[in-house]
Specification:
Length: 245
């Protein structure tokens, strides 16, 4: 049993991934500039929320909803929220590790490895949140490939966050990161097969998420929050530049 994709939601999943990456890279500028542990923690969390919550988790959830299955599918709220928490926590720890003190490129590999494993854990936790009359089984080779893509993408994201400056370079990097994040997700989806069984709670029942408009709604809310954050961060960056002249 295989699903078919709603290509509008596929495109929206990529778009929100790029927007999340641009916002996270803009916010990451504050990490090495922060003075004091409190401000550094705030900068790390802000960038992690944009990258993990917007660029990675929202992309993942919209892309999950883009896959139209020939059966009813709902999502367990607890596991869905846990997958979002894993994504944000993995990005926060990766950014904090890579950006500890003065940036050192040698930290990118272990930090990216940890972050990539966290992103992969987010994806498969999100898959486990699917409530449907079927069991999921995985192709281990494609699962391994998805994890490798997640780790490489995480290393690239961390290196970019602490080395690239300039609007167009960050946008270009975000476009590439969006491809990598989507590549990890859709490779993980390709690894999954489904065997029919039993019944599950209907979408919208207590403790579940579902509905035809959920994907577009998730995109609109996430895109609004990321865009507002990006504009505020960019204005602050321009003010800092003007003050330093």
């Amino acid at each position: 049993m295989q699903g078919e994709y709603d290509w509008m939601l596929v495109a929206l999943s990529y778009g929100v991934s790029v927007l999340g990456a641009v916002t996270a890279l803009q916010l990451a500028i504050d990490i090495p500039l922060a003075r004091g542990p409190g401000r550094r923690l705030a900068a790390v969390l802000a960038s992690a929320l944009a990258m993990g919550g917007g660029g990675i988790w929202a992309m993942h959830f919209i892309a999950m909803l883009a896959c139209r299955m020939p059966m009813p599918v709902a999502y367990d709220i607890g596991l869905t929220l846990l997958s979002a928490l894993i994504a944000v926590a993995a990005c926060a720890l990766g950014l904090a590790w890579a950006g500890l003190g003065e940036f050192r490129q040698r930290r990118v590999v272990p930090a990216g490895l940890f972050m990539g494993l966290g992103v992969a854990g987010m994806h498969y936790t999100g898959m486990a949140a699917m409530l449907m009359p079927a069991t999921i089984h995985y192709d281990p080779w494609l699962v391994a490939a998805s994890v490798v893509i997640a780790v490489v993408a995480s290393m690239a994201a961390l290196w970019t966050a602490f080395t690239l400056r300039g609007g167009w370079r960050m946008v270009g990097a975000a476009v590439i990161m969006g491809v990598a994040v989507c590549g990890m997700h859709y490779t993980g989806m390709a690894a999954a097969g489904y065997t029919p069984r039993g019944t599950v709670p209907a979408a919208g029942s207590l403790g579940t998420l579902g509905g035809d408009r959920l994907g577009v709604t998730t995109f609109l809310v996430t895109a609004f929050l990321l865009s507002a954050t990006l504009m505020v961060s960019h204005v602050r960056f321009l003010r800092r530049q003007a003050a330093s002249l």
